[in-house]
Amino acid sequence: MTPECVRLHPAALTGTIPAVDAKSYAHRLLMAAALADVPTRIRCRTRSADILATVRVMRALGAEIEDLGEAFLVRPIGLCLAEKGLRPEDLDEVTLDCGESGTTERFILPIVAALGRKAAVTGAGRLAERPLSPLSDVLRAAGVSLSEEGVFPLHVAGRIGVGDYAIAGNVSSQFVGGLLYALSLQSCELVEAGESVGCDAVSTLELTGTVESAPYIRMTEEVLRAFGAEVEVSRDERKYVVRGADASGLLVSPGRAAVEGDWSNAAFWLVAGAVGAVGAGREGLAGITVTGLRPDSAQGDRAVAEILARMGAEVAGDAVTVRPPKNGRLHGLTVDAAQIPDLVPVLSVAAACAEGVTTFVNAGRLRIKESDRLATTAAMLRSLGVEVTEGETTLTVAGRAGRPLTGGTVSGANDHRIVMAAAVAATVASGPVVIEGARAARKSYPDFFRDYAALGGRVEVF
């Protein structure tokens, strides 16, 4: 259980730790399994609040999901309803509680519309405030009814069908992912055209404007293909051709799947390894090794290793090990956050420990996360004595050139990434750091402070 408030005493972290499972993959695999033809066993050891939100929503839609501790056994919606003699379109409105999970909400809206279900979508925290347009515009244009946005419950009814769709690519990759799922669920009849046989449920999805968080879209493609979907993408990754499932409208289960290690959460330990030499008497630390990470993962946040190397840290191995620079000093640089916004809070801690200035650019989407993450990252650093300049889409951090951060009190801002970034900052502070609202870490990493202590962190719960 994650504590509500913690006081962290300065202590460098070092050692080896396994990566937690990636919630971004868990969401996608659980949803695909619930929309498949036969049961799927998904190896997943992590039980974060966001992952459990997706489990809860898919159960509400009719899937039977058994928690086996190290895995989930998913009996799909279609199979479970068929055993009861039910059809999705005949069912009453169902309430879908997404908690604070933006991925769950944004994927489930087009999925519900593809199933022809009526649903009342609800959630917690800032979820109602986070934008749904242009996804909502696309759904309404397709004939789906949505109640007023920004207010829960959000009522959804109607059906999205085969068609040619377009959506802006610079708001949320989750909008694109949800639509790709919905278009993959279109029932497909085989039709003859001359000597060839094809599918009559072929849709296109075109992304307009700048495409941000593209790695998350690739992750969606990877999971859909593992479940038999036919998704073709243009070379510039702006146009998708999606062929619907067979006449059943179901994906095809591979039987077993596994959630890979999470680069986004591993980034906190890797940065802690990189800043370990800050402060007197900390030179020569062994660094931190995180096991269970795929070097070739579709996760965009694996860029953390390359960015830390550019800052001067020592990065090595498939079981990724990060050590402080040999001279004990990181150096500032410019980081383009367009594809890796979730890394900004923790990389800002590395920036605070570096020589020179680090500027994060193309970071405007951080303002629509669990908190206004540009503002809350800046506030977190200022609480610890760091000079920060916040722009509309930028964050500039003046490094303290090897001098420890100050102690202080940090608001967790009900944001898991702010809480965990502050905890990393505490390892290089000159005095205790109190984090208010530390419980927010459970959203993605419920055992964060247990693992923090296992690596040598000094945690006081109060």
From TrEMBL:
It catalyses: 3-phosphoshikimate + phosphoenolpyruvate = 5-O-(1-carboxyvinyl)-3-phosphoshikimate + phosphate. The lineage of its organism: Bacteria, Pseudomonadati, Pseudomonadota, Betaproteobacteria, Burkholderiales. This is 3-phosphoshikimate 1-carboxyvinyltransferase. 3-phosphoshikimate binds at residues 23-24, 28, 172-174, 213, 342, 369. The keyword Transferase applies. The active site is at residue 342. HAMAP family: EPSP_synth. Its EC number is 2.5.1.19. Residues 10-450 form the Enolpyruvate transferase domain.
